[in-house]
Amino acid sequence: MNRRQALFSLSSLVATLSVAPKLGAKEIHGFPLDVKLDPESVPVPARVGGYSVLTDITARKNLVAIFDRLIPADSLGPSAIDEGALEFLDSQLAGDYGSGAALYLEGPLRPENEEKLMGSPQFITSPRERYLTGLKALELWAQANHKDSLHTLNAVQIDAFLTDMEAGKIDLGPEVNSQAFFELMLQNVRESYLSDPLYGGNKTMAGWKMIGFPGARYDYRQYVERRGENLKLIPVSLIPDN
User: Fold this and answer.
1) What is the pLDDT of residues 34-49, one digit of tens each?
2) 7-12: which pairs have CB atoms within 8 A and are 24 or more residues apart?
């Protein structure tokens, strides 16, 4: 399974709807407009312009090189970076996800039992810290092994690096688990490609179009029984029209 086929496999998680460039199915109208949302539940859009966390230019260039190898541009759609993966990640790292607000970061009560019980060591640093530390380690590794930054390498070299990183064969120093850092980057770039455009990634909804997801529509009830049918629904984002 190649990288882009991995995105296709996620289509099994959504209804079997396909997207065409023109709207063909009738839309539902008359839904209530006066429904009030809790302000804390309202999604926060990605920051437009500038970076809050990924402020180091070299680190950003290295991430661009990595993300565009994990989800490259091809006949099926644009690359992760073209779809806003960097903006998505920076926005997430600047918020609760980056600070690890939903994570327990106090460390295990009995470290000797940690891996036995959890299956793998617990990370007691936030995603933001893991990225900042990991990106510095990536640059040091590239300088030591190639006398230049990672982003200057060609596609074959970067692919080889990522393959070894995924297998845990890259030594990024005692502070970075290279295999876990690879998995974190892969998870986040996938999230960016399938997120609502409101969050900075999937800007043209290429990821949604690829798997046939019609987006953040108010109601799907009239389509539930129409399995396997091409409804020709154009994806809808959470971004308001006005």
Assistant:
1) 656 666 666 777 777 7
2) 7/71, 7/190, 7/193, 7/194, 7/207, 7/210, 7/211, 8/210, 8/211, 10/194, 10/211, 11/211, 11/212, 11/213
Question: Is the CB of residue 53 less than 8 Å from the CB of residue 131?
Answer: yes
Mean pLDDT of 129-156: 97
The burial of 20, by beta-carbon neighbours within 10 Å (0-12 exposed, 13-18 middle, 19 or more buried), is given as: middle
The ranges assigned to domains in the chain are 3-7+45-105+115-215
How far apart, in Å, do the first and last CA atoms of the chain sit?
A: 41
- Match 């992760």 to its residue by tokens: 80
C-beta separation of 201 from 85 below 8 A: yes
Q: Is the pLDDT of residue 242 over 70?
A: no
Confidence tier at 88 by pLDDT (50, 70, 90): very high
Regarding pTM above 0.85, the answer is no
* Residue 90, pLDDT score: 97
Residue 74, beta-bridge partner list: 77
165 φ, ψ to 5°?
Answer: -65, -40
Longest dimension (CA), the chain: 63
Compute the C-alpha angle 156/137/116, nearest 5°: 100
> Which among 188, 198, 191, 202 is positioned nearest to 131, based on CA atoms?
188
Q: In the chain, which residue ranges form alpha helices assigned H by DSSP?
A: 3-8, 57-70, 85-94, 96-99, 114-118, 127-146, 155-166, 178-194, 206-211
Share of the chain above pLDDT 90, in %: 55
Residue 26's CB: how many other CB atoms inside 10 A?
8
Contact 64, 86 (CB under 8 A): yes
